[in-house]
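question for whoever is on the cluster today: can someone run the full assembly for these? two chains, 1018 residues total. i dont have access anymore since they changed the login thing
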Amino acid sequence: MYTFFEFLRKRRIVFWGVVFLIVVGLSSLASRCVFEENIFKLLPEPEGEAQEDFRVTFTDLKLKDKIFIQAVPRTPEEGETDYEAPDAETLAAALDLFMDSLTAATEERHSILYTLSYIDPSMLMDVASYAMVHMPEYVDADAALLDSLCSPEHVRYQLEQYMALMETDMGENLYDLMTYDPCGIALGAVKQKLPAGLLDGVMENSDRPSRFQYGHLYAPDAQACLGFITPNFGTDNSREASKLVATMREVREHVRATYPDVDILMHGAIVVAGGNSNRMRTDIYWTVGIAMGIIFILMALTLKRPSYLMITVMALVFGVITALAGVYLAQTSLSLMSLGIGCIVIGVAFSYVLHVLIHYLYTGSIEDTLKEQSKPVLVGALTTIGAFAGLLFTNSPLLNDFGLFALLMIAGTTVLSLIVAPHLLPRRFTPNKKAFTVLEKMNAYHIDRNKPIVIITVLWVAVCICFSGQYKFDNDLRHISYLEPESVYAQNHWNSLMNEGFNQQYYASVAHSYDEALEQLPSIEQAVDSLRAIGLVEKGLNRSWLMPSLSKQQERLDAWQAYFTPAKRKQVWHTICAECNRLSIDPSLFDNFQELMANPAEPELIVETDILPPEVLENFVEQKSGLYLVYFSVKNLPENTLAVNDCLTKVDGCMLMNPYYYCKNLVELIHDDFNLIMWISMGFVLLLLLITYRNIWLTLIALLPMLLSWYTVLGAMALFGQTFNLVNIIVSSFVFGIGVDYSVFIMEGLRKGDDDNPTMVYNKTAITMSATILVICMFVLGFAVHPAVSSISFASTVGMITTIMLSYTIEPILYRFYMKVKNRKKKVKV
Amino acid sequence: MKKSIVLALSLCVSMLCAANDIPEKLMALHPANEKVSCSFTEVRVMPKVKKTETREGTLVYQAPNDLRMDYTSPAGDYILITADKLEQCKKGKTQSVRVKDRDNRYTIYRATLLSCLAGDIDRAAELNDAVSECKKVGNKYVCTITAEVAKSKDMKQIQVEYDVTTGRVLTIKLTEGNGNYATYTTHF
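^ ran it for u. tokens below:
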């Protein structure tokens, strides 16, 4: 390495020119790297058709990304006596202002696809008219039932009902609908099929506040005016989600200022994603910022000269831009979560530049530094890269991201530490003698010769290993997702108003055409009905009745035409005319029904007409990448949710619109996958150490701290009631990397001879500094609010401390024991 | 004889010309910032069910976009038209339609009422895909707007009577495609 250093020093201009070009090139590539946040990137990539369906459903579908908006009366402050809750009209006006202002504010970014708060009354009437025109295809009426409905008694009853309805506020609207149905064939069926209360205020004269007034939808008793936003992007676009949530909050302030008695609540996957992203960024800024602050103060105090600090920072910055550039070239984008986790790798990468720097500070010779540090730094870096490279073989995009970022970061920092940094080292060096003296004094104390400490360490490790099989793994991704309190409040408020304490879940009938999806819907609904019969399901809307398949429509139409023969039509029309005359109604009022009997409309799918606008239609059906989904919802008690999901997802073509449900099995798969990768990484490290030391015993001694620290972490998690999750178990893997590094450097020192040989002193100083920095980094993460970030702290801090203790105690003891045995054998031979 | 024929033809031509002038005259009689308030009677008839409903109230019209019709019988009902919405309260139930959304029968109804009150017959005809015809009958202008095709709830015919001198609306008769009609009679 020193020869290479000399070679470059003689071609200084060319060397610095190349370095400059590389830095500019890497920076340019790194700046193009896109950050995204999608917790589902933790999941494996699609394999097979089922996985593909799953991936399509949960990355592209609009329904899961819908934002729910509620305009509600604000909570009066304590002691506020003159507070008067706003009326339904004010809530609607506030919601309109929110939606309009938001649409205007996001117009340039095109971040909103649709908003739905106002429902055009004429659209409702058009849908009702469409249903009446297609009545024969929507009604299951056998001959006996039709006989009964078309009897003179029933026709008379029905006409009297209509005349009574004419006196209500909805009379005029019903006028046109009733012209299609003098016998009450459709209206009776509609009322029977739809959930009770859904038509309050639409079809009936009720004293309760209407669920539909001022062109808006309301929660029962007008407690909230409801709206929906369909974003133009998915939850994976954390940047856009974060911006949209920020804009929504600004607009909400504007609404609050205009309508002081109204509050706007919002929840949904995008709000959670935006909140997650904001929280993650804030946590990263603060935790990394504080850690870096402390580290730089520490560095400044010990290294004294700003140029040393600059070299350290440059090595890290170079590592980061190398990693980002590499990620950009490999896959364009990087998960924000993996960047957050990857920040810990900064601590690992830090140790390489520290080793070079501290060795130089001690020796004052670049030649000595490179000759003595190149090998351990390279071996340490390669073993760590090997440990992280294992993550590249998983199917999880987030693990890939993390692995790629980490190994490139370490590679970049190592290259700069060994190739560029030596050219930047000052000719004169003035180390802070006191700072190093403190470190030296600390390290001069031979902890491995202190029996109580060694015993405590061994006991701690032994106890933890005993408990290592009892650690718990939390496979629920929701627990590592951050939910903002206001989003939780909005969700609970919605549930209490709309779901009566039940848990409402959306499912879809998925197929390769709408008709196919609609055809399989009745069998899914049968499963729902059977669950309802045994009390697991409370409510479920019969969507197949609202949207029958073409074959079902044809079947009903055939039955209709078979019933309404020319003779029957004549008989029924005669009855209608007679009853109309009795009530002084012009029979021509029912010309539409006469036409319907003789020439009913042909079957067609309502979703393929333009009756429903897209912002309404997407609540019922969606089509994406050749898959057609028909949505329906089910309400059940929260304790029955898992059982209901397990049953319904087993029905052919039925998919639960809750990605977390499917994640659990996949998370378990990743967990199993991860265990395998750990062993592969360990095998790689073993091989590398074996090549380096060419001695199996030295290799095993160097490997032991890494192996034991992993089981200690597992046991410690079980002992302290901490749970592993997908994030902290991944991060714990870095303990492997750093554990090997410390072992390698300690082994390097041990091989040089006595306990206080210079190499051991230099290495221990560097390890102590590196370990201090890392422990600070990890400890600070514990103060993060985001559960994914804060969950890292305990496992990695315990892992780090254990690794240092094992490297400082067990490794020298075993080495000495090995040397003793080796020397004894030599003596015996002699 | 020739003179008589020429005179008769001249009379016919002048009458036709005068009739074609009526929309312009009506427009001229209604200033851009016109404000009108009066009482009115609404008679709504559903001939096929032999149902007639009579309602009374007061209206305030402020050109170009504001109209409020408050019913005194039955009390509490109202129709409110502003630049951006049509709101109707009947028997305690309020329904609101926004103007900025796609055209529908409610927004067309709103714009038609405003056009009739403003004396803009051509606009009312255009809104309903209809043809208009205006004639002078005594001291009234009678304008009839007839749609070629009208769905059940669409306007089939609109007949508006104006005072020749003041241009004030005397009656508006709105006939729907299903044969139901409503007649609004103003009382100044």
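summary bc i know u wont read the tokens: The interface with chain A takes residues 46-51, 87, 90-98, 101-102, 104-106, 152-153, 178, 180 of chain B (CB under 8 Å). The first strand of chain B starts at residue 35 and ends at 46.
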